[in-house]
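REQUEST
  id: r-88c1
  op: predict_structure
  target: Sodium/hydrogen exchanger
  payload:
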Amino acid sequence: SVSNIVPESCLLIVVGLLVGGLIKGVGEKPPILNSDIFFLFLLPPIILDAGYFLPLRQFTENLGTILIFAVVGTLWNAFFLGGLMYAVCQLGGPGLNHIGLLANLLFGSIISAVDPVAVLAVFEEIHINELLHILVFGESLLNDAVTVVLYHLFEEFATFEQVTIIDIILGFLSFFVVSLGGVFVGVIYGVITAFTSRFTSHIRVIEPLFVFLYSYMAYLSAELFHLSGIMALIASGVVMRPYVEANISHKSHTTIKYFLKMWSSVSETLIFIFLGVSTVAGHHYWNWTFVISTLLFCLIARVLGVLVLTWFINKFRIVKLTPKDQFIIAYGGLRGAIAFSLCYLLDYKHFGMRDMFLTAIITVIFFTVFVQGMTIRPLVDLLAVKKKQETKRSINEEIHTQFLDHLLTGIEDICGHYGHHHWKDKLNRFNKKYVKKCLIAGERSKEPQLIAFYHKMEMKQAIELVESGGIGKIPSAVSTVSIQNINPKSLPVERILPALSKDKEEEIRKILRNNLQKTRQRLRSYNRHTLVADPYEEAWNQMLLRRQKARQLEQKMNNYLTVPAHKLESPTMSRARIGSDPLAYEPKTDSENLPIITIDPASPQSPESVDLANEEPKGCGGLPPSPEEDEEGLVMQVKEPSSPGTDDVFTPGTGESPSNQRMLRCLSDPGPQPEPEEGEPFIPKGQ
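RESPONSE
  id: r-88c1
  status: 200
  body:
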C-alpha cells in the first residue's frame, strides 16, 4: 500500500538513509558510492536493458524531438544555470566569491542532465503513454554525450591558465566525436555479436553470454577513449537485437530477457540505497544561498527550456505537444546518481568547493525524486493525461502498419519529398538484400517480416496455452496448427495420407517460403524520375489544343458568315416588293441539291481560307447550273465537334458520317449587293 503512494526509488533511498545511520550509530564508517563502481558495474546493466528493449519505432519517429531536448535543452540548462550561479556567487558574500565562472559552468553541466535511472524508476510506475515516456527517457539517454563533453571540457579548462578561441572550437567539435564515436563503437560490436550468434546453433547454452560480453566490451571500449559509453551500449543493443533473436533459441531469448531485467533491477536498487548511505557518510558543506539558488534555478531553467523548445518543435510536428504534455516533460526532468557520481569524481586540488557542490546536488536529487516523483502520479490522474494501453500486438495491426508504411513511402516518392519513410524503406531494402544474408543463418534470412512476426506470436501463444494447464480454454488467435503441435491427435484409420519424406517436405516448404509473401518485390519502386511516359499523353494534349482551336474558329466563322441585317423599310414598300416578285421571297422547301460548304473547325486554317466542296449541283457534271439552282444559293455545312469520349486523333473521318448536324445558311439574298445576272453561275467555272 505504501508503494502505491511513494515511488520505489524514494523507499530505497529511505532504506539507504536508515542503513547509513545504523552503521554510523554503531561507530563504523558507512561506505560511499564510489564513482568507479557506479560507472563500471552498476550503470551498464540499466542502460543495456533500456537499449536492448528500446521501442525502436517510437524512438525513430520522435528522434528529432528527442535530440532537440537532449542536446539544445541540456546546453541551455548548463549555461543558464552556470551563468546565474556565477552571478549568485559574486553577490553571495565572502563564502562564495572565490568560485569562478568555469567552476560554476562545470557544476551547471553536472546538474543539468536528466538521469535515466531516476526516469525509469518513476515513469514505469505511473504507466504514462508511449510518446511522453520515449521523449523523457530518450532525452535522458542521449544527453549523456553532452554531459560527458561539457564535464571533461570544463574540467580541462580549469587547469588552463588561459582559454583561447581554438580551445572552444575544439571543445565544440569534440561533441560530435564523443557522440558519433560512441554510436560507431556500439554499431561495430552489435554487428560482431550478430555475426557470432550465427554460428552458435550447436552450443545454445553460451548464447546469452555473447550478448552480455560484447555489450560490456562496447561500453568499456567507448569509455576507454572518453567517448559516450551510454550511446555505445544503446547502439549495440539496438543493432544486435533483430539478428540475435533470429539466430538464438527461444530458451536463450528468455534467458537474456529475464537476466537483463533482474540485473538492471538489482543495479537500480543498489544505486538508490548507496545514494542514501552516501548522504549520511559524505562530507557536506551547507550554504543556504547556494543550495536554494541551485534548486530554484534548476526548476526555472527546465520549465523555460521545455516551453521554448516545444514552441519551436510544434512548428514541425504533425502530432503537437499539448500544454499537458509540456508540463509532464518539464516535471519529469529528474536528477539522479549520475550527477552525484560525476561530482564525486572532481579533484580537490582544482575544485576545493566539491563538498558544497555535492550537498547542493544531493538536495536537488532528493527534491526531484521525492517531491516530483511522489506528486507526478496524482498530477497525471488530475490532468487526465493519456495512460499506456496494455494491448497485445496482432497480425491485423502488423499488416496495417506495414501497409501504411508502404503507402506513405510511395506518397513521399511521388511527391519528391525524401522524408523518414523514404530513408526507412531504403534501409529496410538494404538490410533485407545484404545485411540479413550475412548475419542471419539459414532460411530465416529470407523470411518476410510478417511471417517472422506470426511465428513469434504462435510460439508465445503456444507457451501460454501449455502453461495455462490444458486445452480447455483456447485463445481465439491460436491456430489449429499450433494446437496440433502441442497436443497431436492420432489420425483416423480410414484416412490415408501420402507419405512424404523429410527432404520432400523441406523442399515444399522452401518453395512456398520463396514464392509467397513477396508481393512487394514484384512491384516497381516508386520514383518520379523513372516513371514510364504515357503514350496517350501527347495525343490527349493535341486533342485539347484542337478542341480549343475548334471553339475559337467556330466563334470566328459565326461572326464572319453572319448575314447583314436588312435596312428597315416602310410597310408599304415591303408589300410592293413582295407583290412585284412573290417567288423571290417565298421560302425554299427543297434543299437536297444545294451546293454545300464543308467547314472543319479543327483545321488550322483561318476563316478566310474556307474549303468549298460540292459547289456544283449533283448530277450536272460540267453543265452550267440551271436558273432555279442558281437562285437557291449555297448551303454551308459545319463539321460537328466530337463527343467528349472521342476525337479526331483516335476516330478520323467522322466528319463524313451522315449523322453529322448540318447548318444551312441561305446566301441567296446577301443584302444590298447586286444580284448576279441570268445564266451566270454563282461560282465561275475554273476557280
